[in-house]
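Late entry, evening session. Most of the bench is empty. Finally got around to the prediction I had been postponing all week. Sequence below, unchanged from the version circulated by S.P.
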Amino acid sequence: MMNRDNPVWLITGCSTGFGRELAKLVLARGWRAVVTARDPSTVADIAEGHADRALVLPLDVTQCAQIDEVVAKTMQQFGSIDALVNNAGYGYLAAIEEGEDEAVRAMFETNVFGLIDMTKAVLPVMRAQRSGIIVTVSSVGGIRSAPGMGYYNGTKFAVEGISEALALEVKPLGIDVLIVEPGPFRTNWSGASIKQSATQIDAYAATAGERRKQIAARSGSQAGDPVRGAQAIIDAALSDNPPLRLLLGKAALEFARKKIDSMRSDFDAWESMTVGADFPDNAS
C-alpha cells in the first residue's frame, strides 16, 4: 500500500497529458513530486511556487544513467519513493506491413524497455520501505488492437503482461501495481506526439489508412478530460485495495467490454475442440 502521509510521487513524461496533470494535482495537494521530462524546461512551470516540494529533473527513460540519477537524487532530496508513475511513451501509426523497423524498435525502447528499467530502478527502494505503488499508464489499446495501431498495441500488450506478473510478485512485499487504460483523451498523444510511418500502402487504405484519418480528425475533441483522468488515478492509488486495471473514459469501457464479449464468443463456440486437444483421460 502507498504511504499517504506526504507521499513522494516520481512521474515520468510530465511535459504533456497525464504526466503534467498528475504532477500539478500532486503538488496542489501539498505532496511531493519528482517532475521529469526529456527537456526539463518544458515542466519548469509546474514547480513554480512549490520549490520545497517539487524536484524537476531531466529524464529520457531509454537512458539508464539518467534513470539511476533521478532515483538517486529523489532519495537524496526526499528519502522515499511512494508512487512511481510510468507515463512516458508515445504512439506510432502504421499497418503491420508498413512498419519501419527503426521507428518500431525505438518505440519499444521507450514504451516497454524504458518502463522496465524505470521500474527495476525503483523497486529496491519500495522493497526496503515495504510499501509503494507502481502506476503504469497503458491504454485500452493494451486490451484491444485496431488496424494501423498494431505496433503501438504490441507495446501496450507487453506492458500489460509484465505489469500483471509484477503485481503478483510484489503484492506480498507491500507494493501495489495499478495498470491505467485510457481511451481517447485530449492529450498530445494523437497530436504533436504521434509518429507515423512514411510508407503507406494503398491496399490498407480502408483499414490502417482509415484509422489514421480518424485519429487525426478527432485530435483535440476527444471525450476524455486529462484532469479528471489524473484525479481518478490518484483516487485509485489512494484506495485501500487499488484495482489491477483502471479503465478511463466511457469509450475505453465500451471497447474493453466488446473485447471480452468477442473472446467469450470464440471460447464458447470452439469449446469442444479446445477440450478435445487434451489426452482423453484428462478431458473430463
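Two things to note before I forget:
The first strand starts at residue 8 and ends at 11.
The beta strands are 8-11, 32-37, 54-58, 83-86, 92-93, 132-137, 175-182, 195-196, 245-248.
Will write this up properly tomorrow.
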